[in-house]
Amino acid sequence: MTDQTSPETTSATSSTASDGTPDLSAVTVSVLGAGNMGGAFVRAMLAAGVSPQNLRVVNSSDASSRRAADELGATAGSVSDLTGSDVVVLGVKPYQLDAVMPEVRSALAEDTLVICIAAGTSLAALTEALGGHTQLVRAMPNTPMSVGEGVTHLMASDDATESSVELARALLAAAGIVVDLPEEKGHAMIGAAGSASAFVFTIVDAMIDEAVRQGIPRPEATRVVLQTVRGAATLLQETGQHPAVARGAVMSPGGTTAEGIAALERGGIRPALAGAMDAAARKSRAMSGE
Length: 290
Ligand SMILES: NC(=O)c1ccc[n+]([C@@H]2O[C@H](COP(=O)([O-])OP(=O)(O)OC[C@H]3O[C@@H](n4cnc5c(N)ncnc54)[C@H](OP(=O)(O)O)[C@@H]3O)[C@@H](O)[C@H]2O)c1
Prior knowledge:
Catalyzes the reduction of 1-pyrroline-5-carboxylate (PCA) to L-proline. This protein has 290 residues and is an alpha/beta fold.
């Protein structure tokens, strides 16, 4: 990352709180496309401290913008709000990007931070479509962002200033964890995070069905499985234990867990999960023409 911070290129939002994080209360944001993911990002930005009157939601019609703004607790805006915003978020579908780019491009000041959450694009393509705009970040969240537990892959333009990247990070941080990795890791991140939430949903679904088959009523089965998955993840996160060590702690010689783990291994759980992650990453590469 090249920090080219100068009085001209420093974001208008560079004031920082006492702990060093950007002060978001005065940041003005326009979100072009506040649907499922854009809406989740709006909620995260409000939780991060952006004030509702400074957060404009711009959808494909005034009625849709008003509906989304009311639901999200933000303010309905119009395309004219893009001009003068400190941050412009592109939350439209990938195939809708081309149509909105000319208006976005003409609205940008040199220091406007653009955050694009669309899949299937690249920093190079976005930079070109925006006429060489430098303050550009791609953010690829997964759907648990909607409950503040997402994983967002942050990819910044080489020419973005450090203050722009820190602002993007601060806006995203209320939605879960933010992972800085080069753009070329995006396909691997689809397999490890983007698509992986759906792999976990499938595992949870299978476990609930089997708990029901074993005689546990479905509401209890659902609570039990969800808390077990959440508890296992929290235990690993909070203790830093290697998963194999945590697993070993549950396995008594000749016991129930050892029997169950042996069944999982015979069923091919490792190649199945690795295969799913690899298939998603491969598909992502193929879709982007690599
Ligand atoms: N779903 C995921 O897991 C996931 C993960 C990471 C990233 N993404 C990315 O998130 C983006 C949005 O996906 P989504 O599932 O949230 O789609 P979505 O719910 O359909 O939202 C798209 C939004 O764009 C608005 N829109 C469409 N055309 C517009 C225009 N010309 N001007 C202004 N607003 C316009 C729509 O407004 P109206 O409702 O008024 O039409 C809608 O609010 C995609 O690019 C996707 O690649 C999705």
